[in-house]
Specification:
The complex is a heterodimer of chains A (about 120) and B (about 110).
Chain A (H helix, E strand, L loop, with lengths): L4 E3 L2 E4 L5 E6 L6 E7 L6 E7 L2 E4 L8 E4 L6 E5 L8 E8 L9 E2 L3 E5 L1
Parallel strand pairs in A: 2-11
Antiparallel strand pairs in A: 1-3, 3-8, 4-5, 4-9, 5-6, 7-8, 9-10, 9-11
Chain B lengths: L4 E3 L2 E5 L4 E6 L6 E7 L5 E8 L4 E4 L2 E6 L4 E6 L8 E8 L5 E3 L3 E6 L1
Parallel strand pairs in B: 2-11
Antiparallel strand pairs in B: 1-3, 3-8, 4-5, 4-9, 6-7, 7-8, 9-10, 9-11
The chains are: A mainly beta (about 120), B mainly beta (about 110).
């Protein structure tokens, strides 16, 4: 069974440019998460979806970040415009449901470098 | 902000030795989880311990939870070079969200 798929794996852009990350969760997983991980730190939740509904986006910087999960399957996270401080690894995860006891399965992440 | 804080931040041991890492948290929890992250790879769930449990085992892993002290420990016995990774504790919070700590970077030397 395929795991969580993310693309691209690496992205280098100049500041003020837009960038988008794509995630395909494990089949059957209703809940999808986007995390940001800075170097040497743990992941921090940006947004989570239950099917196509964003149930928690309080940590998403809405002035420049947006996300969608239109059909309740794959998801896209966008940054426009990117800033130097956005350089980090963006992780996508999925789980069977919202309850915290559901194991989250993580993708390999997209490493973003903003120059 | 991160609720869980791991200690030590970094740990270096020889293959075959045991590795112990600790996690402290601030607010009451329903469960606590440990994840492992190898260099350049995604996180992998290791074990979950519920707030009414005090100890749990999985293979060479042993996790303890002390809710009175708001702390947990992860013990890896008979460590192997392949155990080299960062280990994160994650606690659930309001709304069933997981909050990760800053991690312990474990180096197991062959």
């Amino acid at each position: 069974e395929a795991g969580v798929v993310q693309s691209p794996r690496y992205k280098i852009i100049e500041k003020k440019q837009p960038v988008a990350f794509w995630c395909n969760p494990i089949s059957g997983h209703n809940t999808l998460y986007w995390y940001l991980q800075n170097l040497g730190q743990g992941p921090e939740l940006l947004i989570r979806y239950e099917n196509e509904e964003a149930v928690d986006d309080s940590q998403l910087p809405k002035d420049r970040f947006s996300a969608e999960r239109l059909k309740g399957v794959d998801s896209t996270l966008k940054i426009q415009p990117a800033e130097l401080g956005d350089s980090a690894v963006y992780l996508c995860a999925s789980s069977l449901g919202l309850a915290s006891y559901n194991e989250q399965f993580f993708g390999p992440g997209t490493r973003l470098t903003v120059l | 902000s991160q609720q869980g804080e791991e200690d030590p931040q970094a740990l270096s041991i020889q293959e075959g030795e045991n590795a112990t890492m600790n996690c402290s948290y601030k607010t009451s929890i329903n469960n606590l989880q440990w994840y492992r992250q190898n260099s350049g790879r995604g996180l992998v769930h290791l074990i979950l311990i519920r707030s009414n449990e005090r100890e749990k085992h999985s293979g060479r892993l042993r996790v303890t939870l002390d809710t009175s002290k708001k702390s947990s420990s992860l013990l890896i016995t008979a460590s192997r070079a392949a155990d080299t990774a960062s280990y994160f504790c994650a606690t659930d919070s309001a709304g069933n969200m997981l909050t990760f700590g800053g991690g312990t970077r474990l180096m197991v030397k062959p």
